[in-house]
Amino acid sequence: MSMDPCPEVRRPDGTLRAFVEARQLVPDIILPILSRAEDLAHGAPPVPVSLASSATLFFQQPSTRTYLSFAHAAGSLGYHTADLRDMRTTSFEKGESLEDGLRTIAELSELVILRQPNHEALLDFIRTSAALPRPPIVVNAGSGPSEHPTQSLIDVATLHRRGILDPSGGPKKIVFVGDLQRSRTVNSLLDVLLGWRHLTFVFVPIAGLGPSTCRIQALQAMGRTFEVCDDLDEALTNADAVYLQRLQDEYGGGDTQKHEQELESLRLTPARMDLLPPHAVVLHPLPRRREIDPATDHDPRAGWWETVRYGRFVRTALLEALQPESPS
Ligand code: NCD
């Protein structure tokens, strides 16, 4: 079964051109990328792109880690990188449409890395750019609250390195905590983790911000075991992995102050960390606010800085797998 969001994510020869949704990450695609990332992390040289390949990082929404790790990953492969991050410096200020702006970027780049608020606009760009004389590679670096598939690839890399994705060890329980409704990293990670049958899911959301209906339906349709729970301490006592997420209040809706207070009661403190089994791992895509006490940073179960560090190699391995077509 094809997991492509639209036919245009592939070139006419069937090779992958655009990576935009987490459902594209079936285990057969992920595992070679993770194995290559491990080699790169141990010093293997990246396979360079041909001379004068250009990458444009177009970020309409704020970013620290994703932007930097993509910029360094593309640079390590020999891409000449340029970025558009401050929209006030672009021709959008002069009334240019998003379509024309994206067309310009596509005409001038072999690789386009996009963070912007509208997933449908991203899919439109994939479709229209396929008809250009030289369609660029396109990678989704976050599309509004919808998708963040490369963060999921990195989260999965840490889960894999910590043994959570190995089915031979029996069933494993993953606890999701915080704003689970408007989080693109949670949405995308759930889509990827559906591929591992030995995983069970426990959701401890801020009240009213549980997983989206379509993710719950997907879990049901795939026959996965899950529960929604309001006792975080109980959920932690036999968890194998925990995924925390901050309040996504930039998307509006609800009472931010009330939600923040509730998230405060779910804060990961050193005492809470000690409820977890010794082999467990805790992830957070960052940036964090108060969901995690920085006093837990040095606990061996803390996986968030490892995820940041390793993310550059995962993104390098992904970009290597998406090498541009050689000029004919
Ligand atoms: C996340 C994002 O931007 O979606 N951060 C990231 O890319 N590592 C998470 C967030 O902003 O909460």
What's this entry about, in short?
The chain is of the alpha/beta class and 328 residues long. The protein has helices spanning 27-41, 65-76, 98-107, 119-129, 149-161, 184-193, 213-221, 232-237, 256-265, 270-273, 304-321; strands at residues 18-19, 54-59, 80-84, 111-116, 137-143, 172-178, 199-205, 226-228, 241-245, 281-283. The radius of gyration is 20 Å and the shape is globular.
Notes on the structure:
The protein has 328 residues and is of the alpha/beta class. The chain has two domains: 7-147 and 311-319, Aspartate/ornithine carbamoyltransferase (Rossmann fold, 3-Layer(aba) Sandwich), CATH 3.40.50; 149-308, 3-Layer(aba) Sandwich (Rossmann fold). Helix content is 36%, strand content 16%. It has a five-stranded parallel beta sheet with strand order 1-5-4-2-3, with helices on both faces. Strands 8-7-6-9-10 form a five-stranded parallel beta sheet. Helix 1 crosses helix 11 (304-321), helix 2 packs across helix 11 and helix 5 (149-161) crosses helix 11 (304-321). The mean pLDDT is 96. Residues 65-66, 142, 148, 151, 184-185, 246, 285-287 line the site of N-carbamoyl-L-aspartate.
Helix and strand string, N-terminal first?
A: EHEHEHEHEHEHEHEHEHHEH
Treating each run of at least 4 consecutive H or I residues as one helix, how many helices?
11
Query: From the coordinates shown, what is the CATH architecture of the largest domain?
Result: 3-Layer(aba) Sandwich
Give the class from helix and strand content and strand pairing. Answer: alpha/beta
- What is the residue-mean pLDDT, rounded to a whole number? 96
- Residue share in β-strands: 15-25%
Largest sheet: 5 strands, parallel
The CATH topology of the largest domain is given as Rossmann fold
Return Rg in Å.
20 Å
Number of strands: 10
Stretches where pLDDT is under 50 for at least 5 consecutive residues are none
Overall geometry: globular
Could you state the oligomeric state of the chains shown?
A: single chain
Helix content: 25-40%
Number of domains: 2
Bound heterogens, unique: N-carbamoyl-L-aspartate
